[in-house]
Q: What sequence folds into this?
């Protein structure tokens, strides 16, 4: 599944027991529903693990974090591991740190990125 809406691109792909949700662009109140649909598509596949790839995310506001937390909550209820990888945009890193969500979301930074 691939979608683009209002500056946000999403792609959902499967590899064995893992589903990867690749996100690109900006996540805000207007594009949050697109992210929510992509996460729901991943959850509907009932994988063992969901990885949300933020490598190409340029911006994420509190609405986007809320959508991620909602997806994580649904995944945990279903016994699915949930992890966010590739967080590189300085504003996204700052927001995740500000709210103390790195550990909660299982955030993994890109190789060679600042801690």
A:
């Amino acid at each position: 599944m691939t979608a683009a809406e209002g500056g946000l691109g999403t792609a959902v792909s499967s590899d064995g027991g893992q589903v990867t949700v690749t996100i690109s662009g900006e996540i805000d109140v207007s594009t949050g529903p697109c992210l929510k649909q992509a996460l729901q598509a991943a959850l509907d596949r009932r994988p063992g693990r969901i990885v949300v790839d933020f490598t190409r995310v340029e911006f994420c506001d509190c609405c986007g974090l809320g959508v991620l937390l909602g997806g994580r909550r649904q995944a945990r209820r279903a016994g699915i591991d949930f992890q966010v990888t590739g967080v590189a945009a300085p504003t996204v890193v700052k927001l995740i740190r500000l709210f103390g969500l790195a550990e909660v979301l299982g955030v993994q930074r890109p190789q060679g990125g600042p801690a």
